[in-house]
Amino acid sequence: MAHAGHTHVNDNTKNNHGHGSNFTSPKKFKIVSKDFGVQAIDRTLKRVYPEPLNPFSVSSPEKKIWNGGLLPLDYIKVFLNLGTPFYRIPHWHYVTYGLSDLHGDGRVHVFKGRDQPSGFGFELTFRLKKDSNENVPPSWPVTLLNDLSRYVFKTGIELCTFDYIPWFDALNKVGKERSRNPIITPCPSNSYINHMIVVNDPQLLSLDTASGTVNFLQIVGVLKEEFHYARSWKTSGIVDQLEIHPQSGNMLVTDISRKISVFDLNPRLVLEIFSKIESEGTFLNKVTCHVLWKEITDETDTVEGPENVSLNEQDEFRKMKCVHLDFDANAAELLPIMLCDLDFGLPFCSYVLCMDGNSLNRDD
């Protein structure tokens, strides 16, 4: 991901390791496959967008990742969607190509079987409200989706339905750090949409392709208070409210100019959520983060400073009587919330993975 310290969380129970990607050692390939993965995605999109004008635009790096390029995705296609009859919110629908196995020849992803995930098992989508005077889809979502995809490739940690992704900055703010793509023009932003959640795309159904299964996960931009309660309670509860918000609707369109939260529309919602938290707890129970730890034994009951404890492959799990943990700030804030859930009998996974400065939280 573009900035260290970003976090994501999920409501689903899922093992997120063992992705089968060849990304770390790209090789140059001669295009000889029939690209069954590309065709499968194209077919499902054609059912939703049969109009000749769609896709409205296609973003594709001149040099693909499997030929030594820097961007992780082969394509991002953008479609013009006029919205549903009840919520007529015209929007741009961005769809990635590359997190799943597009080619079936091992150039990026390892084939795991027809009944197994294709590549990482998903592609990302994003729905951005179309301005009335907008004739061309904005390019900043292309950078955003490449940033998220790069994180998945780099860490092997998959996104899941009802994950949340703290971003701590406007999603459409494209500066020097995030404008490595030459087609992106740096632009400032005063948007309050500075976090994301992940849902199933409401129009694109899961695919069973020759390379395996593919789900379409939609990125949805949210306000700070919506993110806070998605994290403190559960993401799916906030999604239910966003689906009836007039600016997002049941397609969960991201309106980058939105300032009215679901709590502004329903002031009693905060009290209802507090009541739910007291009766149900939170659904957050797994955190993947950057952490340092030091074992405390009977011989030494003081902690001079945290250090990484080396765990070899044969000793991956080791029982410790007492341990001092140092988390990054975002993960440390979540730990007390997770521990409180033990009182509700909810499953708790004390799972820690060291990573290079990036933290990723999961709300199962």
UniProtKB/TrEMBL annotation:
InterPro entries: SUFU-like_domain (IPR020941), SUFU_N (IPR037181), Suppressor_of_fused (IPR007768). Pfam families: SUFU. Transmembrane segments: none annotated. Residues 10-25 have a biased composition (Polar residues). SUPFAM superfamilies: Suppressor of Fused, N-terminal domain. Residues 1-26 are annotated as: Disordered. GO terms for cellular component: cytoplasm; nucleus. Residues 72-259 form the Suppressor of fused-like domain. PANTHER family: SUPPRESSOR OF FUSED, SUPPRESSOR OF FUSED HOMOLOG. This is Suppressor of fused homolog. It comes from Biomphalaria glabrata (Bloodfluke planorb). The gene is 106055342.
